[in-house]
Amino acid sequence: MKTVAPAENSKTIALAGNPNVGKSTVFNALTGLRQHTGNWAGKTVGNAFGNYRYKDQTYTLVDLPGTYSLFAHSKEEAYAGEFISACQSDAVAVVCDATCLQRSLHLVLQIAERTPNVLVCVNLMDEAKRRGIQIDLEELSVRLSLPVVGLSARAGEGLSAFRDNIENLCRRPLEMPFTVEYPAPVEAALLRLEGIYAGFCVALPISARALALQILQDEQSAVELCRKYFGFNLFENPKTEIAVKTVFSELQAKGFDKNRLTDTFSGSIDSVAKEIADSVVTESSKKRMRVQDALDKLFLDRKTGIPIMLLLLLLVFWITIVGANYPSEVLSALLFRIQDYLLVFCDKIGVSPWLRDMLVLGMYRVLAWVVAVMLPPMAIFFPLFTLLEDFGYLPRVAFHLDHRFRKANTCGKQALTMCMGFGCNAVGVTGCRIIDSPRERLVAMLTNSLVPCNGRFPTLISIITMFFLGAASGFSASLLSSLLLTATILFSVFCTFATSKVLTETVLRGVPSAFTLELPPYRRPQILKVIVRSVLDRTLFVLGRAVSVAAPAGLIIWLFANLHIGDSTLLQICADFLDPFARLLGFDGVVLLAFILGFPANEIVFPIIIMAYMSSGSILEFDTLSELRTLLVANGWTTATAVSVMLFSLLHWPCATTLLTIKKETKSVKWTLVSLLLPTALGICTCMLFNGLVTLVGLIV
Amino acid sequence: MKQNCKRMSALKVGETGTVQCISEKAALRRRLRELGLCDGAKVTCTLQGAHRDIAVYKICGAQIAVRDCDAQHVWVFVEVTP
Question: Is A340 on the interface with B (CB under 8 A)?
Fold first, then answer.
C-alpha cells in the first residue's frame, strides 16, 4: 500500500462510508495512488493518505476504513468513528452504495449530525442502473440539505463533480448541520447537555449538539474522544459530572435506560433513512439479481459450494505450478549464465579470488536462486488470488468455513484473514482488525502463520515436484503436484482449526461472538489492471524484500562455508551443532540452520539450503529440478526427509516482519512470544511424531 | 391473510418476513439495525449453509450471512395464506 504524507496548507477531506462501497476506488481515482482494493468488506484496516490538486489548492484525502456506523464494533471501525466524530477534516465525503442506499443513509445521517461539511457521493450508479435501480439525486440533496454527487468510480465517472463540490464546501462551508428529530425527552436531554458544554465547544471543531449526542450515545467514547483529540477532561469540573449524571437519571426515570436510548437513536435514524430512501429510490427490474442469485446458488449451495471451493483451490495451484515451470527454467539458465560471465569479468578486472567468490558465488548465487525459484510462482499466484478477490469469492470462502471456526469458538471472519495470510502473513495479521471480538482477533493473529505465505509456496512446490511425482510427467505430473499442494494447504487449515480450538479451550476461553458477514455482489474482475497491480505492487514488493535479505544471507552462508576453524568450516561446525536435534525432526543440521537464517524472510530458506549444500562441494552446477534433486539426495535426502521439511516449512516460527506486526497489533511482548513459540512447538512435535513413525515403520519392515 | 410471527432463523429458503423486533442485547441489536434489519424491513432467506447453522438473508438489497444463533433473536412476521 502506497500512501503519502499530508501536504502543507492542504484541505483535509475524509472519505467515509460502509464497507465495500468503493471508497478506496474513489481514493485511487482522485490521488493516482494504488491503495489496495478488493471486492469484500474490510480490506482497508488503517487510514491511507493521498493528495490531489484542484484549482490551485491541494486536498489531502483520508481513506478511512469502512464502517456501518460511528459506533465501533471492531478496531478498524473505531479509527473511522473517532476521526469523523472529532471533526479532524475540513469536509467529509460519505461514499454510499447506490444499490443499497437506505443502509448507507444510516451513516450519512449520523455523520451529518456531527459535522456540517458533508458531501454525499452515491457510488456504483452504473451497477444500480444495470439492476434497474433509479435514484433521484436532486431530491436526495433537497431531503438531506446536503450536496449530492453520483459516481461510478471504477469507470472514473462523476469525479469532476466530486472535485467541484469539495472545492465549494471548503470555500463556503455549510452552516447548519443536519439534525434528526428524536423523542421529546431525548431532545430535552440533548438541549441540557448542549447548555452544559456550549462554552467548551466554542473553541473546538465539534459542535455542542454533536458532543451532546456523543455523550448520550456512548459516554465512554465521548470521554475518550475529548481526552485524545481536544485535550480536556469531560468531567474535569465535578459540577459538570453531576449535571451530566442528572441528565441520565432523569432520562432513566422517563424509561430511557441505556439500552432504550441506543434503540431510540438507531430507530429514529432508521426511520428517517427509510423515509428518504423510499422517496428517492425506484426499482424497475430484477434481471441482474437473477444472475447474482444463480451464481450464489452455485457457489454457496450445500452440495456444490464446498466441492467448487476445493476445485478452485486446485485450479489456482495447477495454473501456478504449470505456469511457473517454464519461466523458472528460463530464468535459472539465464541467471546462471550471467554468473559465469560475472566470474570471467571479475577475473579480467583483477578482482582477488576470495572477493570474487564471495560476491558471485556467495551473494549473487543466492540472489539468482531466489529470483529463479520464487519469482514465477509468486507472479502467477498473486494475480490469480486477486482475481478471485475482485470477483467477490473470498467472503463465500468465509461462509463455508464459518461452521468449522464456530466449532473452534472463533469467528468466520478468521477465514478472510487466513486467506490474506496466503499472500503474506504480516498482511493477514493486520487484517485481523476486521474481527470484532478482541479474544477472537488474538486467536486469528496467533494462528495466521500456520497457513503458508507466498514465500513458502515455491519451497513446497519444488519439494513436491522433486520427490513425489515418481514417473508421472506432463499433465498427470502437474495435476498430481496440484493435488499434493492442495492436500498440504488443507492440512495447514486443519492445523489452524485445531490450534484455535486448543487456544479457545485453554488460555483464550470464551464463547463465539456474533457473526454477520456481508456477501458482496459478484463483479467482473478488471483482468489487466489486476495483473499489472499484482505484479508491480505485490510480487515485486515481496521479491524486493526477499532479495534485500537474500544478498546478506548469501554472504553469511559463503563466509560460513569458507571460514575454517581447524579442519572444519564454520558452516560444518554450526550444522554439526544443530544436527543431533535436527535429526530428531527428520532432516539435517543444514536444513535447520537454513530455517534459522531464513527468519527475516521465508523466501530465502530453500536457496540457503541449496547454497549450503553446493558450498560443501557435492555439486557445483545445475539448472533443473532433477539436478537439484540429485544434489539433495547426495546430501542424504529421502522422501521422508522431504515430508519433514515440508511439515517444518508449514509449522515453524513466523518471519521477522510478521512477528513485528504481531507485536505492533497486540502491543504485548507476551503474545508476540506465544506467536513465535506456538507454531514452532507444533512443528517440532509434528516432525518428531512423523519421524518417529517413519523410524518405527522402517524397523518393522 | 394471517400473519405468523417466527424467528428469522426459522425462515425457509425463499421465504420473506417483515422484521418485528430484535430481542438481543443492545450491541448486537444496533449492529443488526445498521445492517438494515430495522423494524418493518423485509428480509428474505436466500440460502442455507451446509450444516444449517448459518444462512444468507437478503436485507435492503444486500446479501448478509448471519449465524442461526444470532438470527434467532430477530422476530419476523410472515404472511400465511389460508
Answer: no
